[in-house]
Amino acid sequence: MNVLLLGASGTIGQRIAAELLDRDHAVTGSSRSGAVDAVDGEDFEAVAVDATDPEDVADTATDHDAVVSALGPGDDADLDVLVEMAEAVVDGVRDVDTDRLLWVGGAGSLYVDEETQFIETEAFPDELVPLAQAHIDAFEVVREAGDVEWSYLAPPGIIEPGERTGDYRTVEGELVVDDEGDSYITAEDYAVALADELESADEVHTQLGVGY
Known about the structure:
- By secondary structure, this protein is an alpha/beta fold.
- The protein has a single domain (about 1-210), classed as NAD(P)-binding Rossmann-like Domain (Rossmann fold, 3-Layer(aba) Sandwich).
- It is about 30% helix and about 20% strand.
- It contains five helices and ten strands, in the order βαββαβαβαββββαβ.
- The protein has an eight-stranded mixed sheet with strand order 3-2-1-4-5-6-10-8, with helices on both faces. Strands 7-9 form a two-stranded parallel ribbon.
- β5, α4 and β6 (about 150-155) form a beta-alpha-beta unit.
- The longest helix has 15 residues, at about 130-145.
- The chain is globular and about 45 Å long.
């Protein structure tokens, strides 16, 4: 499979690229500058893409089988750029023959019970609320794209670099917690979950919580 990975230079993007390359997929990895220094391989190409420009996204996505978005706002960026990027990526995908879109989301939109999203709980850090809300707003853009075969994979409360075990669980729309009540996954195992969904396409038009 030939995959366009937007946001390949980030912590999660790097792990997704490595996992896809290990599975013998070809990966075109984008960043704002065009540099993706932490990823290397015969089947990897780094490119510069303006993810707020649907024409640039479409041009780069041409001849790719799928688009994976691991996009996030830069350190000094307005958080509204997440919605702008979601709109541009969805429109860009629509303009080419690439129907499959996988989106790396945020945990805040996941539900902890029938009526309460994680962002609404006391356990959710106050300083992360604006970013989480921006991810929720971007998810609304993706979710409304009924003509695109999208899947939205949201991490648990904590995701960080660590060991690749190949273990994970997914639950539709819910925050995944373990038997001790912890919500956690390594970025490596999150990448496994995303690559599995890319290859299987079992959960199209679905928001998945991922965790242990």
